[in-house]
Amino acid sequence: MRVEASSGFGSAGAASADEDAFTVLEQPWIAAVADGMGGRGAGDLASSLAMDKVRQKAGVLERLVQATHGDRSSGARLAIGRTLERLFQEVHTDVADAARIGARPGMGTTLGVVVIAAGTAHVAHLGAVRAYLWRAGTLRPLTEDHTLGMIRVKQGLMSQDEYRRSPLRTRLFVALGGTNELDVEVRSIDLADGDRILLCSDGVHGMLDDETIASVLQRFGVSDAAEALVEAARAAGSQDDATAVVLEVAADRAADEVDQVSSVLASTALFRDVAATDRMMVAPYLDERHLRAAEVLFREGEPGDSFYVVASGRLKIVRGGTPLVEVGAGGSFGELTLARDVPRSATVYAVEDTLVYGLTRDRFREVVDRRPVIGTRLLLAALDGVGDRLREVSERLSQVEKLAVGEIKPGDHALRTAIVLAARGEWEPPTSR
């Protein structure tokens, strides 16, 4: 994967303390933007401390990024996320210590960091530094501001347009260096060829709506895009420091291929009621499996501990040597394993080259513990899935019983054939034809 980058910065004026700061590093590609608070001698110090810590962590992140090449397990991806969480915690401590020693009340900073690893962007943020994905002319938010105004937006009490004009847009409820408990949000998204990741302070996104940002990224090449965004924010009347960093990737996969996989995941019962930005927080917990034709995913009788979603290709489910059903893109199975140890009731293998995502029981519990709101939605969806499976099995057994006692007739089929089809859910009673 090849990455190109550009950056732009605009000061609020001669009296500004230049409280924004940014860093762009290669090998691995890391971009960071911080927006300090507290005025001259405070906000600028806080944001510079954040950049110092990003540079200090580059070596650790490089080793972790290298480990993800050829390893698409949740463990490899989560290691990057956990390191970013520690980075934020250390910035939090450094800024708090500097504020105490220098008697700088109100000193703090927001921070956004992007790490590119093996075709995936890992995005961590806290505050109002935003990350966006620009793909094929469409701009997609990757983060949500930690402001009082955004809380009202998520509650449905304020529109996005009202949010841009509201003073609550600048009212942070969390910052690095304050007295608050940290809850760093780390998201991951697979990248396609030509994708751009934009990281910017509110001096940019506070003045430019999404349509304008998308238009600027459309009109300018990557080398000029960041500076063009800053200039557009200044022209729109920004009185704050304005910072933008743009990363553009050359990847192996096309945008429609990556979008198709994302759409399949979003449409499954487990993730259907989870917002896109929340699904990005669950993504690092998923194990990615590429199966060749005839390769076995698991065998009948083996311990079961994972829920699976078929992203592309087809799987065949076989029980006792008898083929039961094929599962294609968007199909899923294994909800019950998220709750308890159960042996696999069938063997599953790939009919063709197939991409499968798995969520183990341990990872599922981590999501529930660390992200209880998202975890609760997943839990309820899993329970619904189990209920649907039980209802389906009950209906099949009812048909089998009625066939066995002669309550309904097998029609054109032999009785044994009708019972087998009913057990598979493939038999249609003659009366409903």
Helix amount, in percent? 25-40%
**Global morphology:** elongated
Radius of gyration: 26 Å
Strand content: 25-35%
Ends distance: 55 Å
The tally of structural domains comes to 3
CATH class of the largest domain: Alpha Beta
The average pLDDT score comes to 88
Give the helix tally. 13
As residue ranges, the low-confidence spans are none
- By CATH, the superfamily of the largest domain comes out as PPM-type phosphatase domain
What CATH calls the topology of the largest domain is Phosphatase 2c, domain 1
Q: Can you tell me the CATH architecture of the largest domain?
A: 4-Layer Sandwich
Structural class, by secondary structure, is alpha+beta
Biggest sheet: strands side by side, in what order? Answer: 1-10-9-6-7
Number of strands: 20
Taking the sheet with the most strands, its summary is:
5 strands, antiparallel
Note the main attributes of this structure:
alpha+beta; Phosphatase 2c, domain 1; Jelly Rolls; 3 domains; 5-stranded antiparallel beta sheet; elongated
Structure description:
The chain is of the alpha+beta class. The protein folds into three domains: 2-252, PPM-type phosphatase domain (Phosphatase 2c, domain 1, 4-Layer Sandwich), CATH 3.60.40; 260-384, Jelly Rolls, CATH 2.60.120.10; 395-432, no CATH class. It has 13 helices and 20 strands. The protein has helices spanning 43-56, 58-68, 74-101, 148-154, 160-165, 202-205, 210-219, 222-235, 255-267, 276-282, 361-370, 372-404, 415-424; strands at 2-10, 20-25, 30-37, 108-117, 120-126, 130-135, 138-141, 185-190, 196-200, 242-250, 287-291, 296-298, 303-304, 306-312, 314-319, 322-328, 332-333, 342-343, 347-350, 354-360. The strands form five sheets. A five-stranded antiparallel β-sheet has the order 1-10-9-6-7. Strands 2-3-4-5-8 form a five-stranded antiparallel β-sheet. Strands 11-20-14-17 form a four-stranded antiparallel β-sheet. Strand 15 and strand 16 (322-328) form a beta hairpin. The longest helix has 33 residues, at 372-404. It is elongated and about 85 Å long. The mean pLDDT is 88.
